Structures are given as C-alpha cells and as structure tokens.
Amino acid sequence: MLNIENDFKNYVLKNTKPENRAKMAQLLNTKKEHEDKADLTPMGVIDFITKFYALVKPEFRKFVDNIMDANGNIRTDNYYMFEDARFDTAIAS
Question: Residue 16: helix, strand or coil by DSSP?
Fold first, then answer.
C-alpha cells in the first residue's frame, strides 16, 4: 500500500498550486498520521476535504472524485491515474 500512497501523494502534489505544495504535503501527512492512530473524526475528514479542494489547482478539482472517495480515502481502483506521477517525479529529480 505504501507505493499507492506515495504515488497518490505525488499525483496530488503535481496537481496542487505550486505555492501550496508544502501545505498540501503537510495536510496529506497529517491525515495519514490520524488514520494510523485511528483518531480521524468526521469533522477531521470534512476539514481535510475542504483544505484539499482549496489547495489543488482549480482545473484538477473535477478529477478528485476519480482518485478519492467522499471520506478522503484513496480510490485504489483508479490507481492507474496516479501511477504515472512516480515516473514524472523520478524524471524531475
């Protein structure tokens, strides 16, 4: 699952406004920490999704439903959509 999570994160960061990438990375890390501790509340999910939509590029918002469900979970059935982000990141480094 770690590769899926990393690829998802790279895909999201690639589609985040450049000036907000650090905030998005922190937002994704914080959500993951709460999930790992099993203390992500419904209010926390709403807060995450609200901030998530505010940070991504406007043209990307219509694709969010394809990669994330209403609870902010990664939609692994559409993994192919963000798998290529791994290669884009590798090329850039």
Answer: strand
Residue type present at position 63: F
Query: Coil, strand, or helix at residue 26?
Result: helix
On the question of pLDDT at 84 being above 70, the answer is no
Structural domain boundaries in the chain:
2-92
For 5-9, 37-41, 81-85, which range has the lowest pLDDT when averaged over its residues? 81-85
**Which residue, 31, 34, 36, is CA-closest to 8?**
31
Q: Three-state secondary structure along 43-88?
A: HHHHHHHHHHHHHECHHHHHHHHHHECCCCCECHHHHHHHHHHHHH
Going by C-alpha positions, the residue among 48, 15, 16 that lies closest to residue 30 is 48
The angle at the Cα of 64, spanning 60 to 69, to the nearest 5 degrees, equals 175
User: pTM of the entire structure?
Assistant: 0.80
